[in-house]
């Protein structure tokens, strides 16, 4: 993957992705282990659904444009591959995130509910790309994923947010977080209250809470994945 080395943080003007045929040996050869692992991690969590997701199998960066090929696989295979330590040739979960910021400069992150695959984790609204993100021409709409996931998880509407055109890719083993700046024209606490009120109206909210972050030191109080800490350290000039 040219220019896509682990540990990099890259400013991008555009992300281009398309779905391609790919024989993922891991999913084919370790099917019994995958089935057993899925049964274990989904037990007692009926909200966890073994649908189809899109993973990235090749990528390159050219003149600020990230170009990638994705393939379709089962969510169970993805979760097993993640939990088994990303075995096999380089594959990544390349997902888009809404780096949501309030009018007074604070970041607004979601805390995942106990019924989800990542209970208690704190990060921006996001989701592994799935069939809803695939356009008719086979391209992957990561920009659309940003707003779809944000609105679904927080209850915010498109007319309540402003989305920037730029991206920042945080590249780590097994994953790439494509961060896109999104703003809401309210102070942090008012924005949090609004989102919590909308989430309370959802039948089964994915998020348990909205977390306000105003400094890198505050991240230590939460269970954040490495890509979140890395991005916030970069934004706060402490990477």
UniProtKB/TrEMBL annotation:
Descriptive protein name: NUDIX hydrolase
Domain of life: Bacteria
Keywords: Hydrolase
Single GO molecular function: hydrolase activity
InterPro entries referenced in this protein's UniProt entry, alphabetically: NUDIX_hydrolase-like_dom_sf
